[in-house]
Amino acid sequence: MKRLIALALVTFGIAASARAQWIVYDPANTVQSVINTAQEIAKYVEMIQNQVQQIQTLEDQLSETLINWRKALRANLQSETAQKSLAAMSPAERKPIEEFLAQSDNEESLPENFVHQAIQALRGIQALTLPVDSLLQALKAGGLPCTPQELQQRFNQFLSEQMRGHDAGNTRITLNQ
Fold this sequence. Notes:
By secondary structure, the chain is mainly α. The protein is built from 7 helices and 2 strands. Helix 3 packs across helix 5 (114-123) and helix 6 (132-140) crosses helix 7 (148-163).
């Protein structure tokens, strides 16, 4: 009996651990899964195409804004006030503005130092003409010969008097000969 029980236990132990599984393949389910995946991919492709189209539209709008900005700025720089300012500016100050005016509306870059000079021109630069005779009289006031410091002081005082009521940042000095 002991042998029979041992044999039964061994047989049962081997039978219990030696189970096999059947592979189940459902072709209809696999095909449906592939179709669903393809549809999801198609949706993503459509979504990406829409985003590319939106980016292109925004790029076109930005380009149009840049062109309109350049046209408006060019018109403002050609106004009478700006032209008077340009006439009062030195050649080095005018150079960036002249380079900008020569560019096409599609140009994406600005000449170096353009922004500062354009602001100056659009705010209005005044030309202040100093009479040479008055300058010489001011330098001679107090007598000659004099020290360089005295001459510098006389010049600064004369310039201060002439600049009264003028903004130093928007005023350019010329001499009346």
